[in-house]
Amino acid sequence: MRIARAGVIAASLAACAGLLVSAANAAGPSGREDLRMNQIQVIGTHNSYHRELSRAEQLHQSASDNLWYSHASLPVQFERQSVRHIELDLTPDSDRGGLYTAPIIRRDAGLGPLTDPDLAGPGIKVMHWADHDYATSCSTLVNCLRQARGWSEAHPGHAPIPVLLELKQTDPAMEQLGGPDSPPWDAKRFADLDAEIRSVIPADQMITPDDVRKPGLTLEQSVLRFGWPKLAEARGKFVFLMDNSDPRQQAPYLENRPNLEGRVLFTNSAPGRPDAAFISQNDPTGANGARIRDLVKRGYLVRTRSDVPLAEATTGDTARLEAALASGAQIVSTDFPAPGLAARYGSDYVAELGTPARCNPVNAPRSCRSDQLER
């Protein structure tokens, strides 16, 4: 079995990766304090809230769903696993709440409704699949963010934490079996989303599109010409990113706000669009790696994945991990951020940097030191 330790290969990756830096993102003589927040690289977790269901419920899941894995609570991930990026799947609830208290898979397993009081109340819920894979370490967006903020305020010098949000709805197939029909992500639900985030995370603890955009320029022009905020200004803060890339899903969020004026989230966009600042490219292998490197050099913030449940955990193969790190994507998502998590699947696979953040192998200046990125 091969051990996929990112720290072991970091030095060789940095040596071979290009260090071309655009004028907009170049660091000055002081190195660390002139460094931009997009000139570092962090590893975080995919489906950061995810917990496995009970054995009785698992018997009604398909093994091919790759759902049998669990993450520690968010504060433990930050503190003990050096995670500096999280992903939350969001499902809108009714105005009264309570849509997701009786998952179909529990009914099939002969179990009763869920008793979590947070599920019974209103507010956006955090879960992978409402009727089939609902278990979570924090069942509402507000509670997840409270956990993250609590840890952040106890560690104010941490690297900025990207929070990737995937907007979901219930499965029509489950609805036909008696499951709930969730509300659409329309203008009202998007307003609720921004409001819930702001109810937990103060304005001075997050980076929004308004913080990046320059007067008279689009968001994309601002990022490419003037760069992202300096790391010194971004420490201890969160940046919220929309995972969904379908323009039809994004339309209500962008309506009358082509540059995300007044919004909290950066949309998953494409070069040439006025809102383009963040781009997700999940597969870093092959030609995609070169594309990611180009995007990073130009000044975009990019997310990719180092493994796909549960392929790498089963084989121990590190090719995708190595490609993800070498690509320079600032945000690398894994399901295995600490040693031992993949042992149950037969390998020692782990995706870790050795430090909570490291100098980006593609666009960081030579003066950058990974051990100085966090205070």
- From the 3D structure, determine the CATH topology: TIM Barrel
- Determine the number of helices (DSSP H or I, runs of at least 4 residues): 15
Largest sheet: 5 strands, mixed
* H/E element order: HEHHEHHEHEHHEHHHEHEHEHHEE
Q: Order of strands side by side in the largest beta sheet?
A: 7-8-9-1-10
Compute the CA-based radius of gyration. Answer: 20 Å
State the separation between the terminal residues, measured CA to CA.
36 Å
Query: How many structurally independent domains?
Result: 1
Structural class: alpha/beta
**Relative strand content:** 5-15%
Principal-axes geometry comes out as globular
Mean pLDDT: 92
The CATH top-level class label: Alpha Beta
Share of residues in helices: 25-40%
The CATH superfamily bears the name Phosphatidylinositol (PI) phosphodiesterase
Instruction: Just name the CATH architecture.
Output: Alpha-Beta Barrel
Total beta strand runs = 10
Low-confidence stretches: 1-31
Question: Can you give a write-up of this model?
Answer:
The chain has 375 residues and is α/β, with parallel strands linked by helices. The protein has a single domain (40-372), classed as TIM Barrel (Alpha-Beta Barrel), CATH 3.20.20.190. It is 30% helix and 11% strand. The chain has helices at 6-16, 55-58, 74-80, 104-108, 117-120, 141-154, 172-176, 187-200, 209-212, 219-226, 231-234, 247-254, 287-298, 311-315, 319-327; strands at residues 40-45, 86-91, 125-126, 161-167, 206-207, 238-242, 278-280, 301-305, 331-334, 357-359. Helix 6 packs parallel to helix 8 (187-200). It is globular, with a radius of gyration of 20 Å. The two termini are 36 Å apart. The relative contact order is 0.20. Mean pLDDT is 92; it is low at 1-31.
